[in-house]
Each structure stands twice: as C-alpha cells, then as structure tokens.
Amino acid sequence: MTVRRVTVLLAAGSLMLGGLLAGCGGDRSAEQAARGGDGSAAAGKRLSIATGNTTGVYYVLGGGLADQIGKHLPGHQATAEATGASVENVQRVVRGDSDIAFTLADTAADAVAGKGAFTAPQPIRALARLYDNSTQVVAATASGVTSIAGLKGKRVSTGSPNSGTEVIALRLLKAAGLDPEADVDRQALGLPESVQALKDGDLDALVWSGGLPTPGITDLFTSLKGKVAFVPLDGVLPAMRAEHGEVYAEGTIAKDVYGTPADVSTISVPNLLVVNETMDPALAGSLTKLLFDRRADLEKVHPAARDITRDNAPRTGPVPLHDGAKRYYG
C-alpha cells in the first residue's frame, strides 16, 4: 500500500472518529455550545444534576429531582450524575459540566471564600438549604474503637477524594489531635467500597456524611448486626466549632434509624442545592419553585425531603442566594 493511500485512510478514519466522539460527548466544545457558555442548559435544555455515591442520599434524591424536572418543568429533561460529591460537585458547576449540584454547606462556604480545596472564590449561588447531613462514623466492634481519638493506628476510610465526607473526616481527625496522614491508615474510598471493605474485614472504620437513613449504612448494619457500631462525636464537636464555625451543629442519630441499641450523638451539617451564578434567573426561580411544588413526590423517593421547608430554605449563608431563588422567596 502506498504512503499516499495510508494517509488518505488515516485522514478518513480521523474524521469518522471525530464524529463519533462528538456524538458521545467527547467533543468538549460541542457539549459546551449545546449547554450554553454560561454553564446553563441552553439549546438542549437538558440539565445535569451532580449528586454523589450511588448508595448515598444525594444520588437517590437527585434522581427524584431529575424525574420531577422532566415531568413538570416544560421543555426540560434532567439526569442525576453519580459523583464524588461536594467538592467535585462545586467544581462541576463552576466548569459548566453540571447545572445543579448537591453540596455540604461547609464545602460551599470554603468555595465562596476561596479556601480549603479552592484557591479562589467560586461563582456559585444557592437555590435552597435542604436537609441536614449527619456525620456517621462506623467502626467494627472488634476494633475496640469507641472515640475518634481511638482511630489512631486503624484502617479508616475518609470518603471519596474531593467529597464533603473527606473534608469532614480530615477535620474530625485533626479535632481529636490526630494527623490524618501519619496517625491512621487512611483510605480514600467511596461509600459502596467502604461498606464492602468493612464487611470483608479490610477496614476498621469508615466516615460518612449523609442524610438519614443512608442506604449503604443501612446495608452495613443489616448485614453485620452486632459487629459494627457508631462512634459518638460529641467529644470533638467543640474543637470543630472553634476551628470552623457554627456550620457544625450537635445532632443525634435516633436508634430507630438503623436499629441501634441507643441514640448516638453526631455532628450535623446543612446541605445546599447550588448552581452557577450565571444561570438564567427565570430557570433558577422555576427550579426553586419546583422543589416545593413537588416536595411530596420527593418525600416518596427519600424521607430526607421532609426537612426541606419554605422557612428554612433561604438560610443558605454564607453562600448567597441566586437572584432567581430570591425572587421566589420574596
């Protein structure tokens, strides 16, 4: 075969491959054009919702929200995307990869301040404060761990990289006087992998921040009844608040949530629904209105939606409300 013949074939193959990539979302510029340069779904009117691990509440509730958007927001469809959660979700909204995102308030506060995982203030705005996450630290009873300080020398999952769970897990360890890199065998695993590793005996404990009940944690307590237990967090709450502020509050995991012998003290953090500041105000207002118009349907998807209230929702500080959401709340 001549060199000219090979060159022609390669050129044709490149054109075909380029077309295939564009059709599969591989052409980043084409995707951005379809979604609008400002990070909003423009021509295609398909919204992407950044959620979290597939066994967490973000993913379940995000799927419910996507369903309600498709049914009740004319001209729009939505997809819930599994992600590493809070930090990644903010990054996705800022880049325009996602239109809507679930995030923990402590991560969002870091984002607007340009600290922690963020090197500069991020252009995000809130649609609503949702339910509160409960920090859930679960340890194998055989490990003997009964406090955060007791995690020293243990194999601990601190959550997916760039997740809100990881942010809280590292702060918990530091609040207990531990160095996350030197004092524990830290493993950055998502919730499904963490649950399985604890079942297999490859972990001593896991940290998870999520709504109640979280399906993956329910699975863990059902499968390993009596072999796992919650680690109480009241001992580290004062240090957490002293260092990071009142975004961290006292909470309780009631015994009937997972069938534990008694209630467990925990640390709660609000969840926010955020978007890029450039989202069209009319769309932002419609999404906020939908959240309350269809709340009963969201409650059927997950009971955490019961805590989304009209009075509480505008309390998103220090993350500013989007102008469209402000108009809805009046």
Q: Which descriptors apply to this entry?
A:
alpha/beta
Structure at a glance:
This protein is α/β, with parallel strands linked by helices.
Radius of gyration: 22 Å
How helical, in percent, are the residues?
40-55%
The termini sit apart by: 73 Å
Find the structural class using helix and strand composition.
alpha/beta
In words, what does this structure look like?
The chain is an alpha/beta fold and 330 residues long. The chain has 13 helices and ten strands. The protein has helices spanning 3-23, 28-35, 57-72, 86-95, 105-113, 164-175, 191-200, 215-223, 237-244, 255-258, 281-293, 295-301, 323-329, and strands at residues 46-50, 77-81, 100-104, 124-140, 155-157, 185-187, 205-210, 228-230, 249-253, 264-276. Strands 1, 2, 3, 4, 5, 6, 7, 8, 9 and 10 form a ten-stranded mixed beta sheet that branches. Strand 1, helix 3 and strand 2 form a beta-alpha-beta unit. Helix 11 crosses helix 13. The longest helix is centred in the N-terminal third of the chain and has 21 residues, at 3-23. It is globular. The termini are far apart. Mean pLDDT is 88; it is low at 1-44.
